[in-house]
Design a protein that fits this description.
This protein has two helices and no strands. By secondary structure, it is mostly helical. The protein has a domain of 36 residues. It is elongated, with a radius of gyration of 22 Å.
Length: 73
């Protein structure tokens, strides 16, 4: 069984995110709140991916391709 950080900290599986579909509820305040939540989640995903790509490109600056030959005796 593979654990993610949420499961380790809270000792339960992480919640499943089901995207909110606009006008799924008749209550206007709930609709606006859930739309804002979806916008925040999208923004977080964008910045997390951007940070991952930045870290990857920085790490790759110091890497080089190497080829090793196996010698037999």
């Amino acid at each position: 069984m593979e654990l993610n950080p949420y499961a380790v900290v809270y000792n339960q599986p992480s919640p499943i995110h089901l995207p909110y579909i606009r006008r799924e509820t008749r209550v206007e305040v709930v609709d606006r709140t859930l739309q804002r939540r979806e916008a925040m989640i999208q923004m977080l995903r964008f910045y997390l991916l951007r940070a991952q790509n930045t870290m990857k490109s920085q790490a790759n600056l110091h890497r080089s391709d190497r080829v090793f030959e196996v010698e037999s005796y």
